[in-house]
Amino acid sequence: MNKRKIVKRLIYFGLPLTLVVLVGAVIVTYFWQMRLQKPEEINMAYHQMTAGMSSMINMTDMDGKEHMGDMEHMGGMGNPSSEEGAVSCSSITTPESSAPIRKFDLTAARTTLKLDNGKTVDAWTFNGISPGPELRVTEGDQIVVTLHNKDIEDGVTIHWHGITVPCSQDGIAGVTQDAVPPGEQFTYTFIATTPGTYWYHSHQMSSIQVSKGLLGALIIEPKNGSESGTSTSEATALYQQLGSSMLVNGSERGRTIPAKPGEQVRLRLINSGNETMEFGVDGAPFRVLAMDGHDLHEPGLLERTIVPIGAGQRYDLLIQVPGAGKVVVSSPSAKGLPITIGSGNQP
Ligand SMILES: [Cu+2]
Description:
By secondary structure, the chain is of the alpha+beta class. Among the domains are: 98-221, Sandwich (Immunoglobulin-like), CATH 2.60.40; 233-341, Immunoglobulin-like. The chain has three helices and 19 strands. The protein has helices at 3-37, 52-66, 206-212, and strands spanning 101-114, 120-126, 135-138, 142-149, 159-161, 185-191, 196-201, 215-221, 233-242, 245-248, 255-257, 264-271, 277-282, 286-291, 294-295, 307-309, 314-320, 327-330, 339-341. The protein has a six-stranded mixed sheet. It has a five-stranded mixed sheet with strand order 11-19-18-13-16, with no helix packed on it. The chain is globular, with a radius of gyration of 24 Å. 39% of the residues are buried.
């Protein structure tokens, strides 16, 4: 074979082969990563807490499926190890307190929901609705929530997304507690320490149970009047994927917030889904007052700025309704679900 032939063969066979191997390697690596992040169902209803390390891995896996890299879930990291000197998660509870008590009951049940576009959906709900009731408390309150499981076979828990609570109250099935089986109940007690926008959801096979409807908003109002950036009114917009439907506050039609010209509206946006949602605000400049329950320091006025809200994240926007015209907050990830503030002309 002469040199030219060898070069030709290399070009005709060698190059495509190298390309195929490279592309193959990329695809294999991608799916391997996906596999690591998205385990199949983990039914941890009767999983016993054994080794701290395995619990940590399980926790990461479960949450990796729902909202990856969310450090807020690390709040519940317990060390249920049998090593000497180790403290069990179940022993870390809320200390006795004289704080005002706010009691709630949440019952998880299979429900047929009728959406506002006429569609019916088989959902799993808290108190018959999805999202479940908005829990609204004041900073410093002692929240006492009794979770009842009516008929969710795999069991349920409630995780308080973004709120720092004692280990035993964190609601991570198989890590901080066993899932609550049908017919049973569990009471969560914790102090609402930091004002802000939060949400709660079942953390037993959470990616399935959240998309079935087991979630709701939790708002902690500041003790001494308004939060930073004084707003005159406020509203919550919780976006969720319920089966194949995208909803805001349970609606398939968006929502309208009545507001007068000049009014300052605090809009609490919650993305309970698996993917980042990008929001735009049309009709007025705005400020980002808080992210994930943390106030921003002297937030500047923004205009024509996209607000990317990651999976599980919350953004509190402050929007001043203009003298004439309304403000529309919308996301391409939630087409047909705009938040309209005020009643003037379209922006
Ligand atoms: Cu969460």
